[in-house]
Amino acid sequence: MNKAVISGSGVFTPENIITNAELVTAFNAYADKWNAEHAGAIDAGDVGPMGHSSEEFIVAASGIHQRFVMDKVGILDPDVMHPLLRQRGDDEPGIMAEMAVNACQKAMIQAGKSAEDVDAVIVAASNMERAYPAIAIEVQTLLGIQGFGFDMNVACSSATFGIQAAADMVRAGTARAILVVNPEICSGHLEWRDRDCHFIFGDVATATLVERGDLARDGSFEILSTRCATEFSNNIRNNNGFLRRSRPDGVQDRRDMQFMQNGRKVFKEVLPMVSKHILGHLDDEGIQTDQLNRLWLHQANKAMNDFIGKKVLGRVPETGEQPNILQDYANTSSAGSIIAFSKFSDDLKAGDHGVICSFGAGYSVGSVIVRRL
After folding, report:
1. Which one of 104, 156, 197, 357 is the catalytic residue?
2. What's this model's pTM, rounded to 2 decimal places?
């Protein structure tokens, strides 16, 4: 069996930033507009007025201060409240592929590899812009990689599940090197008109290069072990899909066609699941928590990460042990833990251990134990 390592990572960050102040101004203008349009029903007591959002509420609820998006004009327009992305022709690269290529190129440069060294591309993300052909095959072609590609979706856990699939193939000899890329346009499936969640997501693309250890650069991260788990839950859900027009009210602007979650239940049920998962994974590999130098967690919510970090380490994590990036990027679904890994891994020394962990809808949780070579 070959040794599998992560030899490179890359992050594509959109140019547009939406601050909490900008977001709150737009949302409150929309709320006022909605209340005016429904004044009669509100006065009659048939519906309640839509409340305002605030910067203080957003930070307290999530720890998020801003987010990057592919388009901010439509999101901040009270008459639109969603991104406005140009319709591309079928002969043009798709927007997800464009984002993915940028992140992949950065990962290959860091690993010192070219397209000739890579045999496959896995696009692992929450929401694909089309049903087929696979985004991964488009990315593979744009990069000039000879081999194969496929898409996979395990919502926010897609990156770690993708790394496990890539590591298994590298170990088995199916491929020398595989790019696992996570282009996430979360702004497209977020309901920006919902006070309880309008601040949660941002857009980004991340990539990791998983390859054979004997071909990798010095200082790569050996993948010691991977573990994935799923348990079905409806508490995080999006009912949009290609069967939408086949249902009587499928083309209507329905709330369940965007991101939905029962936040209280998610907190209550996911946190113990993730903590137990990481601790069990470490124990089975014979790694004590005092040997763990870094936790790169899914970037959904600061309170969730603080809880998990304390539960896993048995104490409050010291500065740098459990880096958060969601204050700048917000929740970027599958890409969050990889942003944290890419930005906060260079300082680790040979022999240091870390865990990349992502979790979310499904429920799903994936963990990757690595050691710096």
Report:
1. 156
2. 0.95
